[in-house]
# Entry
Amino acid sequence: MKQKTILLIVLLALLEWALYGFDFGVNIENNSSYSSKEGEGFIQENTAHLWLNLPMGDFWVLNASLMGSFSNDSDKPVLYGDIETLSLKGTFPHLENGANLFSLEMGRFFHKEFSGFVFAHRMDGLRMEFGYPFSTLQLAFGYTGLLNKHYTSLVMSKLDALDDLDKDVLFAPKRLIGTLSWNIPELFARQNVNFSILVNEDLRHLFEDVIKEGKEVFDPSSGGLVDTQYFGVGLDGPITSSLFYNAFFYLGTGRILTFVPDSQSNTGEAYLYKNILAGLGGVSFRYYLQEFFQSVASVQILYATGDSDSISYIEGNTSGGSSQFIPVSGQTLGTAFTPKASNILAVELGYSLKPFSSAKGSILESLQAGAKLTPFFKASKGAMSEGGIDPSASAGYVGTDVAVYGNLRPFSDLGLGLALGFFLPNGSAFLPGKDDPIVYGQFVFSFSF
Amino acid sequence: MKKILILTILFLLAILTFAQEQAVLREFSGKVEVMPPGKNWEPAARNLVLPPGAVISTGFNSFATIQAGSATIQVKPLTRMAVAELVKAQGEQKTSLDLKVGRVRAKVEKVEGLEHDFTLKSPVSTAAVRGTEFDFSGTGLRVWEGIVRYANAIGQSRTIVQGESSSITGLEAPASPEEAAVATSKTEISTRPMGAAEGAGGKASLTGSIKVTVK
# Structure
């Protein structure tokens, strides 16, 4: 009797959900890549996503996505999975006089700051948005320590890097992320203004031992905390109806553990936390020529400060404060050579077109073909995020990444992508024997049902 | 006698002015029906006057062109629209149409000395127009001529100029013109639905209204 009652309740609940209508599906992605970079080679990953979008009443919606992967990458298990997203989002509009909108999202969700170069990642937490006619304010907090590390890119400290290599560690670095964003659309002359403050607090010391400040003996098997803050401002908008731009700047502050000479130390050296004062800036222009095969020409310039006395990207500062910009996650430039936005000056020139865009109904109509040319420079002497770079080499040309790619979506539920990249290094910027050209190829197949 | 003549002329002018405020079905093709207020559906007829409260409906491959003052509205196939308000007073003309479902192209000509406040409403949207030409489907906007101020239910807005497009999803702010350009010039490989992994809104975000104001 009790079972029947429970079954009835479950059926009624399902019926109620069905009345509101929910959406679900499965997506399978095959990603095969080859890189001649040391330690990489041929990698094939197959990932399945099971997603659900479930409205719950007039104001709430549940978004959930599970993912599982099968991989031949020796750095990862053969099979692994994670909850990709699991969030409950409420949207509460007030449409009377003084209209505004409040939305609240709880759970695991994807979050990014406006540029995408500092933080663009999933996290577990809370996000609130206050929408007003002339601006939108967003406040978000999240924790990254419950994410499967194989789906993350959050390496900022030496301990993060060690955990990344340790097969017994399952989860991503334990970091608390807080962001406050203010977006003002069309503040002047159709130009949008963004302000963002992002705080990254390393919570590792609450769970495990880390090197404490004052330790006088160098310990290569451990590390300290990296706490950072970012204060950003960005502008974007149209210049003409076909030409768009965006420009942004982030001031990076924080602290990083450094093993430096210390007169108060018995050994003459000690671990000390040193301040970070760094910067990241970018500007890009995109020109859309829809009439000519839906062409897009673009140029993107990215500059991030480095630290001239750093000997490695991870906790590499050796003297005084650190001026190396350290993003929390974020996107990278390049195809074969993909350094993070740190000690870098990159100029990416891109062009793409859809050669069969006028062949309406053709299977090739959606084909987008493009090419990118990205010369990379070191902003200063010191380390970059990519291995093989000689930190003692002074600022200057590092190499050029050339890539061609093609994307095709013959049907709405089938996507195909091919990218070929080649990096031609400048030998003097690399350590001896580490200056081989890099060849990269990638094929992506995406299918949904 | 003179007074009577002046009053008669004024009366005739008032009648003429009133006549100009009517929405008239100028052209149509295919299956087009009209439901005058309080009456049943009847087949469309050329130069049929559409009084406030009248509803026009187009079938498959059917079109209709309505003239309302300085505004010309092309009603696309599978569209249902009602005439809500037609007023002219003190150099200002006000036209309000309810787009129940479907798509229209509106062209509002500028007339010297006359301000035409043209409004298109739908269950999820409102478009208020002065002097431009655009396609409007409630959630999507394409501007062919002039400048359009495009706003969502809470008044978050963007200026969309000639040749640009924008769209509004539920209560989201209007998409920037570049987002619309990217949508046509870029091919996404991933077949995952937009927002499936990024916590997209649900039913709650599908209600609300959109307002388009042309300057």
User: Anything to note?
Assistant: Helices of chain B lie at 2-20, 177-185. Chain B has two helices and 18 strands. The first strand of chain B starts at residue 23 and ends at 29. The CA atoms of residues 1 and 47 of chain B lie 37 Å apart.
